[in-house]
Specification:
Elements lengths: L1 H27 L7 E6 L15 H10 L4 E2 L10 E2 L2 E6 L5 E6 L14 H13 L12 E8 L2 E6 L6 H4 L11 H7 L19 E7 L3 E6 L12 E6 L3 H9 L5 E3 L4 H9 L3 E15 L9 H10 L2 H5 L6 E2 L25 H10 L6 E8 L2 H15 L3 E8 L1 H9 L5 E7 L8 H4 L20 H10 L5 H18 L2 E13 L3 E2 L19 E2 L3
Parallel strand pairs: 1-10, 1-11, 14-15
Antiparallel strand pairs: 2-3, 4-5, 5-7, 6-7, 8-9, 9-10, 11-17, 12-16, 12-17, 13-17, 18-19
Helix pairs in contact: 8-10, 14-15
Length: about 525
């Protein structure tokens, strides 16, 4: 009898343990009553909510949550395989020149603007291709026709095969779809000055509610989102340019997450307070692009002197856990990457820098006047470089301006050099917008060629690489491109970074963060705020 009672007791204990084990995760995952997420953005204001406008870090997070695209990448992995979004499927013709996309039926525009149709897609992609405001039109030059076959079918015809076409119509840079009727009602995008609702109609998981200048953008949950209603009810993008204010807001829980400062000690301190660090790819590579048509940087020896005088180790050691040296115009992590002569410029040599300046006709050094951004991600690097370059006789006279003004200035080609950092989901985006002569800023197809760089051989190799579907052949072409650019040296390596983010543990992303290009966190359908 006692044995039987003992067995029954043991069974009850086991059952109770199992019940507790079942309950505990449920308790741990209990939702907060207020499902509002505040994201802290290290900028003083919006630049433009228009998805075809030149990219600015503070704008990417809004575009990503407001707009949909024909295809998308998985939450938390912009390098992942493209998935259906507004298109449920697609196919390519035998000659690899015609892509047909079949749209998802019943997808609703925000704020009762009706159903998404092929007409909206054609309108949106033609804006990317043809608008003078488009920062991505150079990537669309291969598109010869974008047409609606019927209400739910779109065809894109290319002049040459395009192995990167899906990346151009995805939720990365430029491929977002806008509402034709809403935008025509608004008249035109205002390029960032007090946007109205009609300018922000998309199909994404959140919809535009309010913009407060130099303060915030408020987005509300899209209950009609095709992939399911998000758990988060409101997303607030809060502009906090001051590092101290952003840190205080994070520690007080006024914001759920933000991009980390580039400081190892600061990160360690924040982690000690329970915050989670996510070091995200893909490679965010900072490069200095010299204006090769402007003295003194029209001389390669001066460009090399600059490179040898600047200490890249000091930049890398700001956060050694997430930073590495640049060794090629296409950063490591991409299949197309190869080592080039860029690697030698990662070793500082002040004496060699002085000799090169003297050989170029500047034995007494040079003084360089330029506009520079007040954004810390550029300012911190350039202030360090400023002191180091003086040792070699290079005097930087920097006029610091707001980041938005800096972006405008550099696109006007007024700077003798430009420091620029960004992330891309494909290797072609590291070469076509920067090193093809068609991409020179200020020209009809201008993109990001701040260097005024032009090499017909490089142009031809880029054009062949971006139309070659054979992977092995394309890799060989990329190797030639990178080595040729490194030899010409119109640009200087600075640093390759994985971007650190900090978030509270009560912000449950609902996915594993691996790679992103929005300089913040994606708030997905499964993202939730836990009770805290």
């Amino acid at each position: 009898m006692r044995a039987r009672m003992k067995i029954m007791t043991m069974g009850l204990l086991v059952g109770l343990c199992l019940l507790i084990a079942t309950i505990q995760p449920a308790l741990a995952q209990e939702l907060a009553k207020d499902q509002t997420v505040f994201l802290g953005i290290e900028a003083d204001d919006m630049r433009s909510i228009d998805p075809i406008a030149p990219v600015a870090a503070q704008d990417m997070v809004m575009r990503h949550h407001l707009y949909g695209a024909l295809v998308r990448t998985p939450d938390g992995d912009c390098l992942g395989k493209r998935e259906p979004d507004l298109a449920t499927k697609w196919e390519i013709s035998r000659d690899n020149l015609t892509w047909t996309f079949y749209l998802r039926k019943g997808v609703k525009w925000h704020w009762n603007y009706g159903e998404v149709t092929a007409e909206d897609v054609v309108y949106s992609l033609n804006r990317v291709k043809d608008s003078k405001f488009s920062a991505y039109r150079g990537s669309y030059v291969n598109f010869t026709a974008i047409k609606a076959i019927d209400k739910y079918t779109v065809q894109i015809v290319t002049a040459k095969p395009d192995p990167y076409l899906l990346s151009k119509v995805s939720n990365n840079l430029g491929g977002w779809i806008v509402c034709k009727s809403a935008l025509e009602k608004a008249g035109k995008f205002d390029q960032g000055v007090s946007p109205v609702k009609e300018e922000c109609i998309g199909t994404g998981p959140f919809k535009f509610v309010e913009y407060r200048s130099k303060d915030r953008v408020v987005l509300a949950r899209n209950d009609d989102y095709w992939a399911g209603k998000p758990i988060v009810e409101k997303l607030v993008v809060k502009y906090i340019p001051d590092d101290g204010a952003r840190e205080l807001a994070l520690l007080k829980g006024e914001i759920a997450a933000c991009k980390s400062l580039n400081d190892s000690k600061w990160i360690a301190n924040m982690r000690s307070k329970g915050l989670i660090l996510d070091a995200l790819g893909p490679a965010d590579m900072d490069v200095i692009y010299f204006n090769t048509k402007m003295k003194p940087f029209d001389d390669k020896r001066v460009r090399e002197a600059f490179a040898y005088a600047a200490d890249k180790t000091s930049i890398r050691m700001l956060i050694p856990e997430t930073r590495t040296y640049c060794t090629s115009p296409v950063p490591d992590g991409y299949p197309e990457h190869v080592e080039t002569s860029w690697g030698k410029y990662n070793v500082r040599d002040v004496d060699l820098a002085k000799r090169l300046l003297a050989q170029a006709g500047y034995p007494d050094g040079i003084k360089v006047k330029l506009f520079m951004s007040t954004a810390f991600w550029y300012k911190d690097i350039m202030v360090l470089f400023q002191n180091q370059l003086k040792e070699a006789g290079i005097d930087l006279d920097m006029n610091f301006v707001a980041h938005a003004e800096y972006l405008t200035k550099v696109r006007q080609g007024v700077n003798p050099f430009v420091i620029w950092g960004i992330k891309y989901p494909t290797a072609i985006q590291w070469v076509r917008p920067y090193y093809h002569s068609d991409a020179i800023v200020g020209t009809p197809k201008g993109e990001l060629n701040f260097m005024m760089y032009s090499n017909s051989k490089v142009d031809a190799l880029i054009e062949e690489a971006e139309t070659t579907l054979d992977d092995t052949k394309r890799m060989g072409l990329f190797a030639q491109i990178q080595r040729m650019i490194a030899q010409d040296f119109p640009s200087m390596p600075v640093v390759v970074m994985r971007s650190p983010r900090l978030r509270h543990p009560w912000l449950d992303l609902g996915y594993k963060p691996l790679n992103d290009i929005i300089w913040s966190y994606e708030i997905g359908v499964k993202t939730k705020v836990l009770k805290h």
